[in-house]
Amino acid sequence: MPRITPARREANRAQIIAAARRCFARDGFHQTSMPDIAAEAGVAVGAPYRYFTGKDELILEIAGEAFRLIFDPIGRIVEAAEGVTAADLVEAATAPVSGDEAVDGAGNTVPVDELLRCAVQSWAELLRNEGLRQRANEGFERVRGRVADALRTGRSAGTVPAGLDPERGSRVVMALLHGFVLQRTAFGLEDTVGFAHEVRLALGDAGVLKEGGRPDGE
Fold it and tell me: For the whole prediction, is pTM greater than 0.85?
């Protein structure tokens, strides 16, 4: 029997991930079984176990891809610019998932709605699965640290208010991003360009608020 090539193996793995993503987005994690995923992928019942230990690993893979699409641009903008603002970070992060489709780390086109549905569901899994929670927390802290570094640099460059604490401010930015995902997925947020614009206004980047949160003229 010929050995499977690396390319074929990667294609099979992507096929199973796509099938799991469709099942999870449609039916939820707990209503989906590994045989359901195999059937959706059109493979033998045991085939998914050649690539994943079980549903938890698939959940982590799919939710991780959604958050990579959102958070990787933060790293790129931090490396490319010295004077970024908080709104720059939010705008860069929301742009990749503002349309109907996105490109994942393997270069495959994926439906944004499916990815974000899985991401939102994964938050509930963190409350029951300590292993998932620890891995998610590591990822969260890594990104939050990059945001804090960007705010610290922006404060030195004068693009971030001098009174802003970068550590606390980074949590505000992360809360905006998580809130964006929830509203985009569950509460019908469609005007993502308008969302980014209003974030810029609310955070003072357009001059509506000055340092210390006081409007012009006060």
Answer: no
